[in-house]
Amino acid sequence: MGSELYLDKHVDYIKSLDKKSDFDSVVMEHLRMNGAYWGLTALDIMGRLGDMKVDEIVPWILMCQDECGGFGGNHQHDPHILYTLSAVQILALFDRLDAVDADKIANYIAGLQNEDGSFSGDGWGEIDTRFSYCAICCLSLLKRLDRIDLEKACNFVANCKNFDGGFGCVPGGESHAGQIFCCVGALAIGGALHHVDRDLLGWWLAERQVKAGGLNGRPEKLPDVCYSWWVLASLVMMDRMHWIDKKSLEQFILDCQDPEAGGISDRPDDAVDVFHTFFGIAGLSLLGYPGLQAIDPAYALPVTVVDRIFYGQKK
Amino acid sequence: MAEEEDSWQHGVRLVLHLDSILEGDPYIDEIGFVHPSQLESLHSIGNFALEHKKPFFMKTRRKAEGQGEADDTGQYAEDCSQRNEGHEVEAEPPGINPDQSYLNNVQGKFIDFSYDKSAFWCAHHKLAIAVSALAPIYEVARKEFLANRKAHAQCLTGTRNSVMSPSSLSFQLLEGGLCNRSANSRANGNGNVQFQGQNGAVHALLQKNLMLYSRVLVIVNCDFASAWNARKRVLSRMEATEEFLLAELRLARMVLAYGPKSEESWAYRRWIIDRMISAGLPWNTVGSVLEGDSMLVEAIAGRSRMNYRAWRHRYWLVSRMSLQQVASELQNTKRLAQLHVADNCCFHYRRCLLLGILQAGLMPNEKNVNSPTLVASRAQAGLSAALIVNPQLLTTLWKDELSWNRDLIKQFFGFEALWLHRRFLIWGFGHNSKIFKSASLPVVLNNNGSTTPLSEGGGIFSKSSSHC
């Protein structure tokens, strides 16, 4: 396996994805917006976003917007808060937030907030803390956090805290590293990180590291590269990254690469995909791996992009 | 044979056959995608006996070309992305899905027409689809779904005499008489079908098409959310009969058989159940649906270990259950937890149940809004009343759980899930002193030799104490 990052291979892998037409790829069309975010952000962290044609991508994104303001996973797919966040994130990457009507998107998201502060994913009512994160992160990038009841939103997230310090998808939901990232991220961006018991949760998160160095997402599960992001970013936001063994995690991620075809898989020797490629690269960036752009742990975007939005220089 | 048709026609034929099979046997409860050669062997076997208590289709973990068989470690893998798990399965002899009680009194209709045997196999309420058929089916279903959805939306906004510019499939359906034919439809000279007369007839046809294609779509791609949404839209506009809603639950169950982590499918079940409740369906029906769903999760969790989505659904059910059901769930899942001591999901579920009972004990008359426990209207009889009369009941339950946990730890030392459960139980004592005030609680040994009951703020991490 070795201990180098096959950066060029991963770039080529990501660029090859769009041309795939086998059934397993076609059947992912409903979440292409997410896939685009994963691939493009990974490219940006590797310093290769310039290889992509922004003039083709931005119009496609706009085509995915529904008249209600939300974005679908692809053209002609129903809008959902998950894809709305990804769309805004991609536009932020390209510094093209001017291409959308931010108020319209903000209204869509605000309309999804419920009485108890939670957010539904779409008009059909499913509630999940992932959607709270999408709402808060997206509105923050659009600088329209004032459109929702932020305090209620953060209180709902706080209500999803469990006895072990972790967070689930709804109040009483099992602690899960992915949900924890969403909750900690939402509270961080929302300015309510005081709800997090950093020592207690930090301990639970640190326990996710297995002997081989990888991180799992829940007790007794196998390690998976995507948790290099969910767990690590949470620890960074809580200032507890030093509670895990960074060297062995780094080695685990590198072991998950496909040195020939490029791309990263969930664990060594499995098939690669763009999801794990992104989270592997993002995890390495958080660990300070040389040659990669820094990534913001809360917004999951390159730090330069976040800085541009909040402290930014105009184009 | 198939090579003679162009691929669109081939797909059209497959979609029609699939729809006919589904109409022919409304009680199909398992679907699997198999290699064409496996399909052949299924067709060549004579009479099946439903002997094995295994699910019909065993899933194998997807590996890249040239890599070995999936090992057991695949069972505990996390499904972090929303991708399908892949379509290679082995066709095992038919097994019994544990939750088939509804089949006892039901006669499945016979599949008495011929269907493409190189693409499908259907018997004993099990359906196998050849992997090679999926792409053509998907292509046709997707295109037809989108076209019909657009036309349906236009119809709803009141466009009269809409000329439906049809794909060939809808035209075939009309010709084949497989759908409600508008009495006033006719083909005009250039091949477009023009509907005159009432919008209602067009609407009915489009709605029927929508339900047809969306059903095919979700079977082939269970996370195609827009297809599930279209069904919700149609169902929202019609009278919610028990039969209809139960049929929708069967569809979701079918899909979950091969896609047990499909969040869209679980969410669909929740929407249907809530629809049942809001439509005022009899409590007996709802109660047995809840029980059925709980068993479904258990069956699925048996072969898809620590499936977060499945278990999440199960504790959502708790919020709609009566107290009696909650108490019996607690009893019933004890054995399951003992069999899977590494399964944190199972213990977490017990924590939800215990918290639910605790909640009822603390606030027997209060409506629950935020908590994942009991809907007020259900929290009336049974255990709640018993708790008021005998508060010790809750303490007994809790202590029983604690000592059962201790025995498991002694037997299976080192399992994180067991220790996590123990921390919860002790935390529960500490945080609910109102209920647990009793001299017979576990105590904490302090450094100076004295003891403090656990209910009195002895923190698990406090420096002056150690566990009993």
Automatic annotation (TrEMBL), chain A:
Residues 6-300 form the Prenyltransferase alpha-alpha toroid domain. Its EC number is 2.5.1.60. It catalyses: geranylgeranyl diphosphate + L-cysteinyl-[protein] = S-geranylgeranyl-L-cysteinyl-[protein] + diphosphate. Signal peptide: none annotated. One of its GO terms (biological process) is root development. Keywords: Metal-binding, Prenyltransferase, Repeat, Transferase, Zinc. One of its GO terms (molecular function) is Rab geranylgeranyltransferase activity. Binds 1 zinc ion per subunit. GO terms for cellular component: Rab-protein geranylgeranyltransferase complex. It holds the Pfam family Prenyltrans. Its cofactor is Zn(2+). Belongs to the protein prenyltransferase subunit beta family. Heterotrimer composed of the alpha subunit RGTA, the beta subunit RGTB and REP; within this trimer, RGTA and RGTB form the catalytic component, while REP mediates peptide substrate binding. PANTHER family: GERANYLGERANYL TRANSFERASE TYPE BETA SUBUNIT, GERANYLGERANYL TRANSFERASE TYPE-2 SUBUNIT BETA. Catalyzes the transfer of a geranylgeranyl moiety from geranylgeranyl diphosphate to both cysteines of proteins with the C-terminal sequence -XXCC, -XCXC and -CCXX. Required for male fertility and root tip growth. This is Geranylgeranyl transferase type-2 subunit beta. It comes from Physcomitrium patens (Spreading-leaved earth moss). The lineage of its organism: Eukaryota, Viridiplantae, Streptophyta, Embryophyta, Bryophyta. The gene is LOC112291779.
TrEMBL record, chain B:
The keyword Transferase applies. It holds the Pfam family PPTA. Keywords: Prenyltransferase, Repeat, Transferase. Residues 80-90 have a biased composition (Basic and acidic residues). InterPro entries: Prenyl_trans_a. Signal peptide: none annotated. Residues 63-99 are annotated as: Disordered. It comes from the Eukaryota. GO terms for biological process: peptide pheromone maturation. Belongs to the protein prenyltransferase subunit alpha family. This is Protein prenyltransferase alpha subunit repeat-containing protein 1.
